[in-house]
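Weekly sync notes, structure subgroup
Attendees: PM, AL, DS (notes)

Item 1: joint prediction request from the bench team. They want all two components modeled as one assembly rather than separately. Inputs as received:
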Amino acid sequence: MQTTPFAIPSKAAGAGRTFALEALFWAAAVAAIFLAPRRLLLLNEIAILGLFALSLDLVLGYAGIVSLGHAAFFGLGAYSAGLLLLHVTTNPLWALFAAALSGGVLGFATSFLVLRGTDLTRLMVTLGVSLLLGEAANKLHDLTGGADGLQGITAAPVFGLFRFDLAGHTAYVLSLAMLFACVLVARRITASPFGMTLRTIRDNPLRAAAIGVPVTRRLVAVYTIAALFAGLAGGLLAVTTQFVSLDVFDFARSADVMLVLILGGTGYLYGGLLGAVAFKVLQDVISTLTPQYWRFWIGLLLVALMIAGRDRLGAVFKRVPRAGGPS
Amino acid sequence: MLTLLFDGIASGMVLFILASGLAVTLGLMNFINLAHGAFAMAGGYATVLLTTHAGVPFLASLPLAFLIAAALGALFERTLYVHLYARPHLDQVLFSIGLVFMAVTAVDYVMGAQQRYAEVPGYLKGRVELFGVGLGRYRIFIIAVCGAVAFALQLILGRSRFGAQLRAAVDDARTARGLGIPVSRIFTITFAVGSGLAGLGGALGAEILTLTPTFPLKYMISFLIVVTVGGTSSITGPFLAALLLGIADVFGNYYLPEIGAFVTYLLMLTVLMIRPQGLFARPR
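Output from the run, pasted for the record:
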């Protein structure tokens, strides 16, 4: 197992600067509450998307698993939270707990499916799982409301104190707090020997196994943790918007989160968050210009990015050097 | 019952023509091209426009659909796809998703979101009774055309000089180049023909499948199922997989409409679990 000798040089390279940048990022995120009180709903969406992208980063950026169906966990989390709020309790924190738990359980169960096969098989399996769940949510009309979505969700005030207001104050603060907690956890995980072994697996699974990394167990673990985060993100969407519809399982959602992560850059945790900011602002601007056709420009952006090479992007933000090799 | 089976075979055949190009680009060339359906859609809309607006007879519009989609395919391959052959799969996935988004919205912008139908000529409408089974004439036509195409494909890939060159170029592009095989031209031709076949499938299927701007997204999973379940070592695998999927789909829609696509996805996952290389392929 790789331990300190490998971890120290990369961490020491710019630890102080990295920390300052991180602090700046969170300070900006908190300051946004006061600076942009009219855009809190958008900020809430950004925080949720950021958390979702963070989850994908763990899978894709750190473990190198290409997933086309990450929305499966997001969607399941959203429906779990929504159903719990509707039928069991209106406590939003329990709903979030249920969302994270259900995402994690699904992640654990399906992790064994993505261990096998090539990139293509993984793509198909992840895509298949999300389609399967989307179809199930569509057909289980009595439980999920089918195409109409879950309606009439009400969430009680957080801690009995903070009501979910129309401006999105509580929503954004809650999402931001969850995002912050998850980033801390992810930061701890990826900096640990566990995180180092993940990168080893990503760069060369065969060699990783040869030097004694338990590849299967590591992948199962990271996939489960990532799914838990994605479930939590879905839960946050359900709790803060108090509505869940079939589009949480949409293929476009899985594709979008990939774009978000690529925009920000993979493999350094903040890529997803910065990408989420860029993506949502971009979407906001384009969709005011052409409400119906904003996806065209997103597509064009993707194509242009890929032709230009995605390595060049995100290098701007990157402070922590990482071992080379495609993710 | 037999009519259902027949319909299933027909839609399976269309599916095969649609996916056969993908079976080559994805299966042989190992390029994950999620935008394959966009070329099929181009063929479908080409037929619709040609028959309704330009007054081209339906039969003549089919080869034109093939040519238009093939030309588009060649153009995109030369300008865009060629840069991504050597890239990681992730890049290919993102690139082709971007293309899909562009195709979907562009067609929506130009053609509108409503479903379009191709005008099938009178002699292909209606049914014929054969051994007491009612068979749609158009379905018979489809099976004949697709069967011929499948047969020709099998011959070309397996027996011809071009097929041998293609297989060599795929197995080891460097060595093939060294032997004087024009690898990049072969890839372009293959890609163009694959796109053209998708266009032909889209044109033929304009009657059976629903032709809307979201076509590439909607049928993407079907194409991928055909290729992954069928396996990538031969053209017979995808052919059988397409037939299976077509038949299962028609039967599922008839007998179990409540579950529908659920079963298809579940079956696909199970197959991929048991045989990641595909149902009809030998593990390499």
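Discussion: The two ends of chain A are 21 Å apart (CA to CA).
Action: AL to compare against the crosslinking data before next sync.
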